[in-house]
Specification:
Largest sheet: 11 strands, parallel
Distance between the termini: 50 Å
Structural class: alpha/beta
Bound molecules: guanosine-5'-diphosphate-alpha-D-mannose, magnesium ion
Shape: elongated
CATH topology of the largest domain: Spore Coat Polysaccharide Biosynthesis Protein SpsA, Chain A
Radius of gyration: 22 Å
Number of domains: 2
CATH architecture of the largest domain: Alpha-Beta Complex
Strand content: 25-35%
Low-confidence stretches: none
Number of helices: 6
Number of strands: 30
CATH superfamily of the largest domain: Spore Coat Polysaccharide Biosynthesis Protein SpsA, Chain A
Length: 363
């Protein structure tokens, strides 16, 4: 089976994490997000993958090449300027089969793709939209259906009080290629605002495929952490996740843990890290490669990328630290702090909860 992945967005809501990389490449349990997605697609028999790129395309292409090492075949299609979700698919039309999946490139899910494809065929649909229940539908596309699961209305990001159901567009579609006939070439065009409402207006068979399978959009710092904490707790599946058990941290190659350091809960540590004397790691914690955590530091519920130094007696809780950053002695870094790459935090600094620190800056 074939899938087209939309990975051209700028990932603005994930800034400053996406200032130097793209959303599709941010590490999830120390592997690029797309690597998890390729594993999932391959497990479901989808191995022909078309990637539509716009923002920092070389980050993805130079890492994955033609995809061989990941069990999938990759085709890259570039956009000079963002063509929107449906415009990007139109731009890749020459590579597409009669029927294919489309994925928003920031969704982590266990949705059963074989069952969705079978449902689409049975109904003779032109488009089938996967749905998932969420608590607050206002950040998503709300999809109203009849009892026969035929879609009646599609409302992108309604006000909370205007949402009539908590079932939202999960960002996975099955499409018949001929729906692209209605999409103007080289023009910014969206599934959410243009193509789906247009198909409904023309009374085309658009169906919904609701599912309770694990689902998350990783596009905000909070959700980016949540997906990793979920994977550590065995919610959601990835062939790349190996949940660490209580007191038995998943330490990578050549990483050391001092005899006086303590580890509680689910903790994953990459390669070549050193965790010094009297350090306390309280899961969920995800640490990349080549990090140094100095004496007496405490880290709780945080995600730390590669090459990060945490100074003596520093305290980190509920934060994200980008690669090549250094946190000084005795610092305290509060809930929701997000640091980009290459940040230096001086000794004794207190970073207020929610503060965003831009890459290559010193505070
Ligand atoms: N190639 C390309 N070109 N990709 C794009 C473009 C573009 O112009 N614009 C957005 N994308 C990609 C993004 O990189 C992302 O992977 C995906 O399309 C969706 O864009 P988001 O910016 O993440 O959209 P959203 O999360 O606000 O809303 C969408 O996803 C929700 C589910 O998470 C909508 O489809 C909603 O209806 C849906 O509920
Ligand atoms: Mg999104």
């Amino acid at each position: 089976m074939q899938a087209l992945l939309l990975v051209g967005g700028e990932g603005t809501r994930l800034r400053p994490l996406t200032c130097k990389t793209v959303k599709a490449m941010v590490p999830i349990l120390n592997r690029p997000f797309l690597e998890h997605l390729f594993g999932y697609l391959a497990r479901h028999g989808v191995d022909d993958i078309v990637l539509t790129l716009c923002y920092m395309p070389d980050r993805i292409e130079s890492y994955f090449g033609r995809g061989g090492g990941h069990g999938v075949k990759l085709t890259y299609v570039m956009e000079e300027s963002p063509l929107g979700t449906a415009g990007a698919v139109k731009n890749a039309e020459r590579y597409l089969k009669e029927r294919f999946f489309v994925f928003n490139g920031d969704i982590f899910t266990d949705l059963d793709l074989g069952a969705m494809m079978a449902f689409h065929r049975e109904r003779g649909a032109k488009a089938t939209i996967a749905l998932t229940p969420v608590e607050d539908p206002s950040a998503y596309g709300v999809v109203e259906t009849g009892a026969d699961r035929r879609v009646k209305r599609f409302v992108e990001k309604p006000k909370r009080e205007e949402a009539t159901t908590n079932l939202i567009n999960a960002g996975t579609y099955v499409l018949e290629r001929d729906v692209l006939e209605g999409v103007p070439p080289n023009t910014r065009y969206m599934f959410e605002h243009h193509l789906f409402p247009g198909l409904l207006q023309n009374d085309q068979p658009v169906y919904a495929f609701p599912s309770d399978a694990y689902w998350i959009d990783i596009g905000t710092p909070q959700k980016y952490c949540q997906v990793q904490y979920d994977l550590l707790q065995g919610k959601g599946q990835s062939s790349l996740a190996s949940p660490a058990k209580d007191g038995r941290p998943g330490f990578g190659a050549r990483s050391s843990l001092h005899a006086t350091a303590s580890v509680e809960g689910a903790v994953v540590v990459g390669d070549d890290c050193s965790v010094g004397p009297h350090v306390r790691l309280r899961g969920p914690v995800v640490m990349g490669n080549n990090c140094r955590i100095l004496e007496g530091a405490a880290i709780e519920s945080s995600v730390i990328w590669n090459n990060v130094t945490v100074g003596r007696n520093a305290w980190l809780e509920g934060c994200i630290v980008g690669s090549n950053s250094s946190i000084g002695e005795g610092c305290s870094v509060g809930q929701g702090v997000v640091m980009g790459e290459g940040v230096t935090v001086g000794n004794g600094i207190r970073l207020e909860p929610g503060r965003k620190v831009w890459p290559d800056t010193s505070v």
